[in-house]
Amino acid sequence: MRTGGRPIVKDITAEASAFVSGEGDGLLHVFVPHATAGVAIIETGAGSDDDLLTALDELLPTDDRWRHRHGTKGHGRDHVLPAFVPPYASLPVIGGRIALGTWQSICLVDTNGDNPTRQVRFSFLAG
Fold first, then answer.
1. Which PANTHER family does UniProt cross-reference here (predicted)?
2. How many Cα atoms within 13 Å fall on the side-chain side of residue 49?
3. Following DSSP, what letter does each residue of 31-88 receive, concatenated?
4. Is residue 64 part of a domain?
5. pLDDT score, position 64
6. Is residue 109 within 8 Å of residue 52, measured between CB atoms?
7. CA distances (Å), origin 40, targets 23, 67, 119
8. Residue 1 belongs to some domain of the structure
9. I want to staple 112 with a disulfide (CB 3.0 to 4.6 A). Which of 8, 14, 78, 96 is the partner?
10. What is the pLDDT along the chain (127 residues), one digit of tens a residue?
């Protein structure tokens, strides 16, 4: 998945929904195998995605305070991100549809502009 060269909250609900379509009941597990990205279940399109990036900038500034110092300035904060936005989420699937709330979306959160391409792994546990 291409995320670009700047922090982004990318809605991946459509891809996740396509993955579980026709699967019946069970659990969808979403995982990003990266040390600098996470998965969030949030509302998008009403400003919450930008609010999340603003909150992360305030909590984890892109300055020189970080001991992890490779890549662009402040890149160490990207390595702390998964402690706040975990790299996984598990969601119920009922009748082949993800049981999200009305305004919930599954989002890839990527603050690392040094790595513009990410993998997202979906797995399904029937049950």
1. UNCHARACTERIZED PROTEIN YJBQ-RELATED (PTHR30615), UPF0047 PROTEIN C4A8.02C (PTHR30615:SF8)
2. 20
3. E---TTEEEEEE--SSSHHHHHHHHHHHHS-SSTT-S---SSTTTHHHHHGGGTS-SE
4. yes
5. 86
6. yes
7. 23, 26, 15
8. no
9. 78
10. 988 888 999 999 999 999 999 999 999 999 999 999 999 999 998 999 999 999 999 999 988 888 887 878 888 999 999 999 999 999 999 999 999 999 999 999 999 988 889 999 999 999 9
Give Dmax (Cα) for the chain. 49
The whole-number pLDDT of residue 115 equals 85
For the record, the structure tokens of 96 come out as: 């082949």
Provide the 10 A C-beta neighbour count for residue 16: 22
CATH number at residue 81: 2.60.120.460
Residue 103 domain boundaries = 8-126
Q: How many domains does the chain have?
A: 1
